[in-house]
Amino acid sequence: MALSARLEIRQGQGLVITPQLQQAIKLLQLSNLELEAFVDAELERNPLLQRDERDAEPDAEAPVEAAGDVSTDRMDDAGARAELDTAHDEASPGERVTGDAEHDMGAADAGASVDWSKASRGGGSFDGDPEGLEGVLTRDKTLNEHLHDQLSASGLKGAEAAAASVLIDAVDEGGYLRAELAELADRLGCGEDLLERVLAVLQGFEPVGVCARDLQECLTIQLKDRNRFDPAMASLLENLPLLARRDMAALKRACAVDDEDIKEMVAELRALTPRPGAAFGGEPVQAVVPDVYVREGLGGLWHVELNSETLPRLLVDQRYHARVSASARTDQEKTFVSDCAAQASWLVKSLDQRAKTILKVSSEIVRQQDAFLAYGVEHLRPLNLKTVADAIGMHESTVSRVTSNKYLATPRGVLEMKFFFTSAIQATEGGEAHSAESVRHKIRQLIDAEASERDVHSDDAIVDILKEAGVDIARRTVAKYREAMRIPSSVERRRRLKETA
What does the pLDDT look like over 476-489, one tens digit per residue? Predict the structure, then answer.
């Protein structure tokens, strides 16, 4: 068969992921803190972008109410959709609509739309805030700094001081030494006996119990400091697994003490600190800032609106763009200006579309979980990404990105969007399925109601109670949920209640 070259034309369809589309997809899954950092980087890189420092004027009218009547157990889907559509059609561009947004990702802009990129955001300026600068510059001393301060006054010199500094750097936030002495000795080129001597000095530092290698050593140091370390207490520390299981009979035999002595010894252990370094400052904790506010309105309706504090306010400086374009001489300069303008415009549009998409998904979540908002976790319905995606006409992966690292401020607290998506557990007689979260809540309620050892429910007993309540669940599922909530077994709970009786 002879080989020959020929030219053909074929027509086909394909999806090309452009850099701009990749950026839009990336913006969807960023949290508000990550988005702020991304925008700061873009402001440094792109000279045509600038923050809109104008004060945002609040809307005179209230947000449109469109989440359905929550007075009934389940919303009428057709009626709710009609309400949402009516609210969306009648709302002016200045109103915050809780219905469908106009476009999905990548759709062309059509008609008037809310410029979410120009909404107000929290300022980080110190102007007018005399305590702002002080709050930034002052912070709690960390455990590492506290130990190094004591090292300076310890009198250790030369190799011992250097070894002590390395050991301190290996101490975690809880106060435990997380390094093997043999490893450190090999790395530092010194003897292990030197590290043992230095470690003994460090274990005398404040807080008492710091630089221990495990829990037993930490508690031993604290007991010795209180002059309460004796052979019986040493035996108790060697049998901490028995104490964790509350096997008091085995502990009494191991320590050779009676009931009264073992109770006193356990009480002394409970007065100690298992994490001596926890009292010191660590990395600053970032408070969760909700992306969406959900508030109850009149007539059982719900207001759903974006938190404008988390939305960057960006503008494309058209005047500066015109000046720079006019002064550009070389092709390289013209290309740079053109690219900056295109990227700036795309970023503003992407932020606008991101806000619309978040609002659209949040509104559907509120519509689906209105009973939970009104009555509590027992009324949380089973929900998955596909249900929301089909309802709002988006792809499931888009909904997944939107719900990542996003939070809703509701009357039930600030909740992550993922919280509202739970698996379904079937009802016993073919009724409406129960959400896994509501079943976990029922299990916790049953266990919290146990007042004495006679009231303790085994996993099988919990299964029977739930089946009577219409929940078709297996014993292993109850055990899995109980362990996930860190609730001990019925044997352990019965033993604890017996001790406190």
Answer: 999 998 998 989 88
Q: How far apart are CA 367 and CA 65, in angstroms?
A: 11
Say yes or no to pLDDT of 121 above 50.
no
SS3 410: strand
Which one-letter amino acid corresponds to residue 174?
G
Q: How far apart are CA 27 and CA 19, in angstroms?
A: 12
Query: Where does residue 175 fall: left (phi above 0), alpha (psi -120 to 50 degrees), or beta otherwise?
Result: left
What secondary structure does DSSP assign to 79-112, as a single string? HHHHHHHHHHHH--TTS---S--S--TTPPP-S-
* Cα(266)–Cα(285) distance, integer angstroms: 34
The C-alpha atoms of residue 353 and residue 210 are separated, in whole angstroms, by 52
b/e map of 146-180 (b: 16 or more CB within 10 Å)?
bbeebbeebebeeebeebbeebbeebeebbbbebe
Is residue 207 reached through a cis peptide bond, with omega within 30 degrees of 0 on the bond before it?
yes
Taking the alpha carbons at both ends of the chain, their separation in whole angstroms is 94
Between vectors from CA 363 to CA 359 and to CA 364, what angle results, nearest 5°? 120
Axis crossing angle, helix 231-238 with helix 248-255, rounded to the nearest 10: 140
Q: How far apart are CA 149 and CA 171, in angstroms?
A: 15
Domains of the chain: 19-102+288-419 (no CATH), 143-279 (1.10.10.1330), 423-500 (1.10.10)
Q: Looking at per-residue confidence, does 221 or 121 come out higher?
A: 221
pLDDT at 11 over 60: yes
- In angstroms, rounded to a whole number, what is the distance separating the alpha carbons of residues 169 and 369? 48
Strands (E), 151-279: none
Average pLDDT, the chain: 79
> Which value, to the nearest 10 degrees, does the dihedral of the CA atoms of residues 484, 440, 468, 498 take?
60
- In this predicted structure, the answer to whether residue 49 has a pLDDT above a threshold of 80 is yes
Distance set, CA 245 to CA 40, 190, 488 (Å) = 52, 42, 10
Q: How many CA atoms lie within 13 A of 478 on its CB side?
A: 23
* Local confidence band at 427 (pLDDT 50, 70, 90 cut-offs): confident
